[in-house]
Amino acid sequence: MAGLFDLSGRVALITGSSRGIGRAIAERMAEAGAKVVVSSRKLDACEEVVAGIRKAGGEASAIACNISTKEELQQLVTRTREVYGKIDILVCNAAVNPHFGATQEIPDSAFEKVLGSNIRSNHWLCQLVIPEMAERRDGVVIIVSSIGGLKGSSVLGTYGLSKAADMALARNLAVEWGPKNVRVNCLAPGVVKTDFARALWDNPEIYKATVERYPLRRIGEPDEIAGAAIFLAARAGSFITGQTIVLDGGATVT
Asked: What burial class does residue 75 get, using C-beta atoms within 10 Å of its C-beta: 0-12 exposed, 13-18 middle, 19+ buried?
């Protein structure tokens, strides 16, 4: 069974991987044998994660990048290729949510930031990376979406809109690039215990109301999302493309 989840010799580029879900994916993919590029805006935070991976016996490099800038994304891809020669696995995890409230009240600048960072940057990265994968007829793209893209919300509407678009992006890229053996899928977590989702779990009243709707009666942990990412990236998930895998403790079935 270990062979089904072995990532030895694979190169994984993971955005937003200095903390939370992205960090867990980076650490666990390195544990599974991948050479990992840890990326976020702050280089020191990336280097901290890399140091931990190397201490555990893994291989990793830190490259800072602001995903909202196409030039920086190009540099990220170029430098990854300079360090490791290729990109086998692209994980589009970085995302923003500067507005917690009704869509009626979101400023234009915040609306544009959400759509730019959560959709356009993923589109740009895929444009930059997938053609290389297609040439080798081998590659995996994983977009970290959210169950917000499957549900309505009175406080996360624009964020949910962007995450629904990510699901559509994955489906369309899967159709376009499947004949070249490039697989593209989404992960859609529910509430996970990260700093990014702190507003949804740090408040006892909100947390209680949230987990009461979850059959498992708890929120998720970053490692539980990382496991699904490894599944999709490895041979175990080689017949899956264009899908959105929901990891939400059962929230969307109740």
From this structure: middle
Instruction: Report d(CA 205, CA 210) in Å as an integer.
Output: 9
Cβ neighbours of residue 78 under 8 Å, at least 6 residues apart? none
Pairing of strands 11-15, 89-92: parallel
The C-alpha atoms of residue 91 and residue 132 are separated, in whole angstroms, by 15
- Residue owning tokens 């059962």: 250
Q: Where are the beta strands (DSSP E) in the chain?
A: 11-15, 35-39, 59-62, 89-92, 139-144, 182-189, 244-247
159 is catalytic: yes
pLDDT tens per residue, range 35-50 = 999 999 999 999 999 9
Each residue of 161-194: pLDDT tens digit?
999 999 999 999 999 999 999 999 999 999 899 8
Q: Indicate whether this model's pTM tops 0.85.
A: yes
User: Structure tokens of 239?
Assistant: 């017949």
Determine which one of 84, 159, 207, 214 is catalytic. Answer: 159
Residue 120 DSSP one-character state: I
Q: CATH number of the domain at 2-190+222-247, out of 3.40.50.2300, 3.40.630.10, 2.60.120.260, 3.40.50.720?
A: 3.40.50.720
**Which residue from 96, 90, 58 is spatially nearest to 76, judged by alpha carbons?**
90
Residue ranges per structural domain of the chain? 2-190+222-247
